[in-house]
Specification:
With about 60 residues, this protein is α+β, with helices and mostly antiparallel strands. Helix content is about 15%, strand content about 25%. It is built from one helix and three strands, in the order E-H-E-E. The protein has a three-stranded antiparallel β-sheet with strand order 1-3-2. The protein is elongated, with a radius of gyration of 13 Å. Bound molecules: zinc ion. The site of zinc ion has 8 residues, from loops.
Length: about 60
């Protein structure tokens, strides 16, 4: 049986960079569907918003 390694790769996403590359009307909910984890190749990437202290940051999490 092949065991799947749990991937904990995370990436802090800079919202400002996203705006510059995707434009202000880009639907953020669609972002994870276009991404692949560079570490494990998983397409199950989720976008995790960080809370109030830094609302312009979000983190991409794979696995
Ligand atoms: Zn991964």
């Amino acid at each position: 049986m092949k065991s799947v390694r749990e991937c904990t790769y995370r990436y802090a996403l800079d919202m400002e960079t996203l705006l510059w590359t995707r434009g202000p009307n880009f639907p953020l909910s669609q972002l994870p569907t276009r991404l692949m984890c560079p570490d494990c190749g998983s397409r199950r990437v989720s976008l995790v918003y960080e809370v109030p202290s830094n609302p312009n940051r979000a983190t991409l999490a794979s696995g």
